[in-house]
Structures are given as C-alpha cells and as structure tokens.
Amino acid sequence: MADNRLKIDGDLAAVQEIKSVGGDTLKKCYQCATCASVCPLAPDEAPFPRKQMLLAQWGAKEKLLSDPSIWLCHQCGDCTKYCPRNARPGDVLASLRILVTKELVPFKFLNTFYNNLWGLPILVLIAFVYILLVTIFAFKGMPNFFDATSFPYNPNLYYKLGFMKLPARVVMIDVVFLSLAGLVVILMVNAVSKMWKTYLDYYNVPQAYRYGVGTILANYLIPALKEILDHSRFEKCGANSWRATPHKMLLFGFIILFITTGTVFILADFLGMHTPWNPLTHPVKWLGYIGGLLLLYGVIGLMTGRNRAVLENSLKTSYSDSFLLWLILLVGVTGFAIVVFRSIPSLYNLTGLVYLIHLITVFLLFLAIPYSKFSHLVFRTTAVVFDLYYRDVLKKMGS
C-alpha cells in the first residue's frame, strides 16, 4: 500500500490509552527500522510496523485507526525477536487492534468487559439472565435444571408455528441465538462499512475506482478467503511459525461447526427432525464431533504454544488473548460433555446443567465477535480484501 506524508501532533491521552490496552512497550522504540526490515508480511511499498510505532508514540490515534496495516500484522513475533530494544512492535499493533474494535462498535462498555478480568462475571451474568428469561418464557415457567426431562428434553412442551412443530428447547435456542446473531451481524456490517470508508479516504482512492459492494465481493472476497484458508501469511512467519497449524485447525473447526449448526437448524426447525439424535450413528453428530475435535486440537495447540513462546520472549499473552482461548476451550469441552452426560444413566439428570453452561459459553463467544480479539475474524478479512483491492487499483492507475 502507498505510504503518505504525515503531520503528527502529539496526543498524550491517546498514548496512555494505547499503553493501557497492551502497548506499554511502545516508548522503548527508537526507530531503528529493524522491525519493518525483518517482517515477512510487510509489503515493500508500505512496510510495517515502523510507521505504526512512530504514530503510536505520538498518539496519532485517528491515523492509526484508519490504517489497514494493523490488521495485516499477524503478531507472528519476528519483529519482537529481533528488536534491539524489546519494544515488542507486534504487541503494540495488537493493542491498536483492540482500540479499533472499541472505536468501530457501539456499546463500548461491552468491549471494556471483554478486555478486563473484572468484567468476566458481568458478562456471565448478562448471558445467564438473558438465557434464563428466554428459557422461562419457552418452558412456561422455571424448569428443573437437575432433571433432563424438565430441561432441556421436556417431551411435552411443543409450539405450533405454521407448518412447524417445535420443542421448547428449540424455541429457546432460536430466540436466544437468532436475536444475538442478528445483533452481531448488524453491528459488524455497520463497523465494516465505516472501516471501508475510512480506508478509502485515508488512501485517497479516486471516485472512479470506488466500486460497489457487489463488485468488491465478486472480485476480491474469494481470493481473500482463499488466502485466509491457506494461511499463506501465517506460514511466512518465522519466530512463531508453530501457530499456523493449530490456528488453521481452529478455523476449520469453526467452519465445520457452523455448517453443522446450519444443518441442524434446517433439519430440526423446517423438516421436523428434532434432536436429540443418536450420538453414535447420526451423520450430523459425527460431523459435529469432527468440528469439535479440530476446535479442541487447535485451541489447545495455541495455548501450549503460547506458553512456550512467552518463556522464549517471542510472544506476550494478554488477558484478551487468554480469555478468548479459554472461552473457546470451554465451548468445546461443554459441547462434548453434553453427549457424555446424556449417554451415562447416572449422569443423565445433570445434562441440563451442562447444557446451560454450554449455552452461556456459546452466547459469550458469539457476543465476543464485535467486542474482543475475536473481531479479527471480520476485521482482518476486511483488511485483506482491501489490501488486494487497493493493489489492483494502484496497478490500474499506473497503467
């Protein structure tokens, strides 16, 4: 991407904000340019993270929030490994990504809750209260969470909606997660729209090359997704090259679980093939098991690898990193625990309690998309799409 000449006005409050969310080492940087030289991902025409470190030191918050390069950084640790001052540029850019997420998405208090330990019980309480209220509505009163035939597998409560006959648990899940998914989609579409406009203005893209959404998606989204699925940028990293495989498995796990969930939704809600299905013979269950195992393999690999990298000083794990990894782990463990508890007679009546815990963890993971490090799922994809698009624009302008 083309670099721009910048006039920098210092903003001490912005510097303190960057330091408060994990960029506490930024003042150690003395602009030797080692980081930009060794980064395997930085393009020649606009190498990072040297410029971003300079802007962060001066608190140029608006310029930083308008820069897609902070999302093209994968925090692979090469810059940190070779930095002579231990300024940890990758960690500083990670803190900038937290700030971007906070600025782009409304209800900033939720961002604060997700990125601070003291906010965890509040988040759990929000998820629990919402799920409980919907459960009371769907089950026509408070069910017994220690009796699986009361919750979630009540055999007597059904709702007739047109041609569909839905059990209470399906109604409860639909109300909770369709409403949550709708909120997340609205928030992220609005955020991506603002992000894209900011990038266009920052790079002064001429109106003639400001294509519509359809053109952008048709020409640049598929190549961007292919690159993301291949993990080609991840695999260029040196210091923490171990991250590529577990991160790819985690991504594939999420994709398979998304497909599984969509399949269950269609089969149960529209075709009346309601769960619970036989855990040993149903093909959709096995698809879910594969996705769950990939998810667990990926998240455990990232957790153990991060612990090793922290000891080697090539990576720093912040609360936001640990929280997301532990949350994903809990989603996977509780998902498998439901199958185990439902299959063992002596544990059967505890299934409802495990089911409730699983719903809370899934709720928090969904809500994490706009308010935590999980936002990179959308924002990094947007930055990669813009990177491919802008490179193409530069070629066309130069021809």
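the 2nd protein, sequnce then structure:
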Amino acid sequence: MRDFKLVLIKELKDILRDKRSFVMMFVPVLLFPLMFTLMGSQMDTKNLEANIPCIVEFENAKTEEADRALYDSLFHKACPGLIDPKEATGGRTAERELERGAVYAIIRFNDGTVFVKCNNSSTKSMQAWKNLVDKLSTVSQLSLYQTLQTQYGVNVEQLLPFRLVPEQMQTGNSTLASIAPMLLVALIMSGGVSVAVDLFTGEKERGTMESLLTTQASRISILAAKYTATLSVSLLSMLMSVLAYVISLKISKNALALMTGGTGQTDAQLSLQFDQVLRLAAVCLSLSVFAVSCMTLIGLHAKTVKEAQSQMSLLTIFPTLLGGLVLFMDSVNVGDGSVWIPIFNAIISIKMIFLGTAEPRHILFTAASSLLYAALLGVLSVRMLKSEKLLR
C-alpha cells in the first residue's frame, strides 16, 4: 500500500501539473450552457404563435372577391392576430422573401382553396407553418360542425360511431431516456482517454516507464496506482460533463425541446427518484471501471502515443453507435442475455432506469458483468506489465 500511495500521489501531481488537461475538464461547464443557449434561441417559438409574418396572395382574379371574404373570416374573425401580412420589398418575389427569412410563410387563396407554403430549411418557418396549418384545420372542422348543426339540424356527436379518449401509461422519464444513455456512456468511455495515453504509452515513449519499473515498487502497485489515477480523472470528467448538461438544460428550455422533440416536460418530470439514482450510479461506476480497464490495456499494448490515440478512438465511436441503436429499440422486449454484452448492457440499463422499467436483477447482472470483464482485462494488463515485451 505504501508503494501504491507513493506512485498514485506522483501520478496525480503530474496530472494536476498539466494545467491544460486539468482545465479542459471544466470547459464543458462553461461551453455547454453557451452552446445550449444559442440552440435555444433558434428554437424560441413564442413569437410564432401570433403575428406570424406572412405574404398573402390572391391568385384567381375571378374569385378574388370571394377569396378576400374567406381571408377576412379566417384571419380577422376566426383567428385574429394570427398573422402579420407583409409585402415583398425591393422588387423581390414572395418566394425570395420566404427564402431569405423576411417572412415565415406564403398564404395563397385560389377559388376557396388555401395554400400555405413554408421554407423547410428554416426551423422558425417550419414551426410557423405548423401553427398555421393546425389552427386553420381546427377552424375548418369547427366551421363544418357549425354548418351541419345550424343549417341542417344535424347533431355531429351522433354521427360519430364512438368516442376516442387516448391515454398513455407514464412509467418513467421518456425525455431523459432518449438522450441520457448515449450521452452518459460516451462521456464515461472517453473521459480518461488522454490521461491513460499519457500515463502508459506516454511514459514508454518518453523512456520513463523503464526507470519506474526498476524502482522498489512492485509492478502491481504501479499498475494499480496508474489505474486509480485514470479512474479518478475519468469519473471527475464525467461528473463535470453531466453537471454542464444539467445546467444547460435548466437554463435553456428551448434547447431541451429541440433534443426531445418538443415534449415540453417540466422540471419535476426531469427529476429522478432516489432508487433510480442508486441504480444509475451502480451502472455508471461499473462501466467506468470497465472503460478504464480497456484504456489501461490499450495504453500498455500501444508502442506510440499516436497508435494509442488511434486505438482509443474506438472507445468513443463504438458506444456512440450502440447508443444510436438503443435509441430506437424497445427496452421492454430486451432479453436477459443483453446483460452479458459489454457497453450495450449499460446503455440499455440506463434507458430502462429512466423509463422506470429496470428490474433490480437486471441492474445487478449488468454491473457484475462489467466488473467481471474489467477483472479479465486487469489480468491481461498485469501479465503484459510483467512481460519484458512491454518496453520493446
């Protein structure tokens, strides 16, 4: 233990001495809120619920009078203040004004038919178009019901064969379940990569690993100290990144709507229960141990820093691909065999935790399998460290 503490303190001091790497762990706390605020500003749709800037055109001269009457009934009586009529300026056409963002929609009337055109390359134009179409569809349906009832004496409710009341079973947090698995696993698998490269491959490339191995400290103590230092940095990096995302989503609700498809869930719905936090911690900690074991083995095996960085890039790419796959999977029908698939088991478990469908045995087996694989990788790392081929 004395040798372990000495080597661990040495490695931690070296990490802290490298101010650039240490500061980089805090960059997400400053960068992510700014990024999400900018994203949210592009998703601010409050001003698109009324006074939507539009160009109104009447295409058919023969029916223009009737079309204008329809226009007045829609936007002056049924939906007052919904649009803000504009005209093309500077000799531009209506399409050109829509393309450059001066207006968000073009509304054309032609013999009782209403055409609503948007620019699908503009988020605000798409949202404005959706608001216009939804409200005009509602007005059209209500007008039909009113005509049937007043002019023909038809009870519209009696025409319907049944009443449909849609309901959803809310078992958890679908918002966080859609973004958290990929986010957390990617952060865990990449958090300590730079430190692992420097502590293992970097030492070999600088020629300091050989002198370290010739000291009285045992090789297992050296490996355990370097492993612990890498794990500490990995966990700290993950916590700082998660904190940055939480702060960002608290600051910018519009960015949250962008990431979750506009679900509009409240802060209470975005919170976690205590048992969910414990299960999440068990999965994340066990995955962190597995991730650092992978980094350690790669760091010992690689001969150059460039080679190690190239191999460790897979620790970021592979979880991201799996996270995208799990995003579209139905976690309810996932078999018990998934708990033995590295990384995938953690991603699906995190999703199930946020959905509230994770069973204790599934979390237990997931954490146990991750630790088991980490132990196997640790054995390989010990053998490699004891081998004379390490320094070649």
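The CA atoms of residues 170 and 355 lie 9 Å apart. DSSP finds 17 helices and four strands in the chain.
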